[in-house]
Amino acid sequence: MRLHRLDITAFGPFGASQSVDFDDLSAAGLFLLHGPTGAGKTSVLDAVCYSLYGSVPGARQGSGQGMTLRSDHAAPGTRTEVRLELTVAGRRLEITRQPPWERLKLRGKGTTVDKAQTWLREYDPTTRAWKDLSRSHQEIGEEITQLLGMSREQFCQVVLLPQGDFARFLRADAEARGKLLGRLFDTRRFAEVEKRLAERRRATEAQVREGDAALLADAHRMQQAAGGAMELPELAPGEPGLAEAVLEAAAVARATARELLTIADRRLSAAESARAATGRELADARELDRLQRRFAEARERAARLAERSDAHRAAQERMERARKAEAVAPALELRDAADSEHRRAAAAEARARALLPQALADAGAAPLAAAARRAAEELGGLESARRAERRLAALVEERAGLDRQERADEEVRQEAETWLADWETVRTALQSRVDSAQEAATRAEQLAVQRDPARRRLTAARQRDRLADDTEAARQRALAAAEDAVEARAHWLDLKEQRLHGIAAELAANLTDGTPCAVCGATRHPAPARKTAGHVDREAEERALTAYQTADELRAQAERHLGAVREALAAARAEAGDTPTAQLAEEAEELEGAYTRARATASGLHAAQEELRRAEGEREQRVAAQQQAAVRSASRVAGRDRLEREQAALEEELTRARGAAESVTARAAQLERRAALLTDAADTARAAEETARRLKDADARLADAAFRAGFDTPADAAAALLGDTAHRELQRRLDAWQSEDAAVRAVLAEADTADAARRPPADLTTAEQAAADADRRLREASSARDAADRCRAELDRLSAHAATSVRRLAPLREEHTRVARLASLAAGTSADNERRMRLESYVLAARLEQVAAAATARLLRMSSGRYTLVHSDDRSGRGRSGLGLHVVDAWTGRERDTATLSGGETFFASLALALGLADVVTDEAGGVRLDTLFIDEGFGSLDDQTLDEVLDVLDALRERDRSVGIVSHVPDLRRRIHAQLEVVKGRSGSVLRQRGAG
Fold it and tell me: What is the SS3 string spanning 32-82?
């Protein structure tokens, strides 16, 4: 940016118009702006600032939108105006500003306020003339700010260097430096980043709290399901570790529920065993009662037999007498039958005993029956082991299922990893398709906009060509119609003239004597005119007139048609121009082809987007499947441990139950077969004993019968037979007695029956009550087991829901942790931020470091190599660090605070800082070159040597084609600097006196 000319009217202390030729002042590179205090040196700089930005620095702007800028020395009719001519970004501009002006009303009394006015013009080197660009305050302000790349505050600090401000900047604390640097470098976007991070942290924290509240609600439901045995974590929603604490408490509750279920299972098994034992005791009591009643009944039958013994002996005597004849034959038959029955029973007994173990091969019926009962009791005791064996088989199958699930999940993870490995390639290809289709769609829209105008131009061109021919034909027709109309008019006029010449003959033809003449009124007509050859009458004239009118109408129509065709031709030429139709057709065809191709390419946009969305959806599904497979694999570890423990316990129980058998089922089959064999053997043994006894009785009877019959042999008694009826009746009675006696003797001879008779009477009531109590305890144990199983299932369900919630919240919790860490890091409250620097302070610290480096290059020259400015990010007290500024003294080698510099040192240090800041802000603004700078005050605090060095530094700026204006009232500078702009104050206002470098 280079200033060329400044015109001031009625501004500040300047009552009249004043001009500054900066080109003349800048020729020497260094010029002095001096004058007494209050003359208006700063007002010149204010005029430059006002012309660019429409306002002046600081409090000098005042209120009233710039009305205070008007000079009190100005004439009432003179309006305040500032005009600045400058070159910026290669463009020569002229800015004219007029602040609001309160003036007298043109009519009436009082004053009115004219609004502020602004003009922006640009010099066109081609035409060598100024052209207007804008009169809008907003547009001009945006244009100037964009060209300069600086705000008003930055401009005032960079171009109008106020040394007092930089001296205060050197001595200021970090907060004050931060405010100034923040205005210069506009770090509001970094503060906005801090704000956005804080807002995002609060939003994610609220979401995490909401998820934790739902998780705590699940925990409360689990506590209710566990019956209050579950201890909830004493953590509020949003606190770290809540999810882990809830899951840990849920795991403890599930373990407790499984332990209670195991206890309930064991109690149920004990109740079932007790129920089986009481059932056996009840069966034993009932059997004892039956045997005792059987023995009593046998005793009663024996007593009745004893009472009928006399009748029996009488019958025997009668039989003795009868047997003398044939008693021996029945005895023989009886003996044969008994022998046959005994042989069959003995054979059955031998077969049954052959199947028994060697230890029981010779046992009696009673021991065999007792062994059968013991086998049946042991068989009943294996029911619990059978359930355990079935549970063990289910566990083995469940473990096999877990192994299958593990293999399936491993396949899912491997497949997902394989697919996801190519995701970036697939996504890039799909995104490229989408981008190409979108570009084609945009190109199609642009071509569609161009297509209709091209079609219209082509149609207009074709119409133009057609109308060109039509115009020529219409022109010829119009010329022909005009000629016809002229000829018809001439013919009509000729006929009219001829008729006028022969009108007298036409009038005379109607004259009669005594009738007045229409012309002269005479009643006599001595010599009336006569019609000559070729006379034209009225009808001929009217026909000629009609023909002329028709021809003239045709002419008018032809001319109107020609005009319409020419207008259409002009419109078509305006639309199509002079471009040939073939060229327009070719362009339209090319445009149509490009549009068709773009549409064809763009038609695949939806399919490409859908395919990309499907691919992204598939990726999300595969990532989710991979994560879920990993979670399931982790959860199966605990399930597999539980199954292994339960399997070991069941195997131990089954080992005890099956003994030497391969399985409990095999053991039960052995016991069932043993009980059946023992029972069969006991029954056949009793039958053999009974038949043996009967055979013995038959032999005794046979011998007795023969003896009683008085025969030496039974054969001898065969001859002495009785009648059949008498014999049968007598024998029936004897057999009945014998049968009853045998039955009674058999019952009384039974060992278990006799043993039962010797025992105390059976207590059925007590046994039945014990069995009923065992049934009740079994039902209670079963109900308790069902309740424990329901509690376990409910806790599993709620735990699974809580685990799902934790997994769902995990990404959000990670995001909250990440955002909270970034927010605290950006806000300077994080432990990782060792220097407690906010993000904005960090950026400003980087800028300050650049400024210190740029300032040091000039400070070394000004201080003869003694001082160097360095940036310090040490913390000050309990505040935050990052904006410290120290000076390194090369003479002492020590680093100290800039506040310890003397007045002169502070001046040239602040001047170096100002120049360095100007360079950095210029680079920040996009590298806009600043060819004109102003330095305000501070030179009076320097000695001659330091002043020379400072001026040398400023003069070095001229090497870069810069001009520097020094604002000072130091007299020595007037001698050293030849180009001067003097501000002279007086009663009528200040005036400017300019002296060039020559």
Answer: EEECCCCCCHHHHHHHHHHHHHCCCCHHHHCCCCCHHHECCCCCCCCCCEE
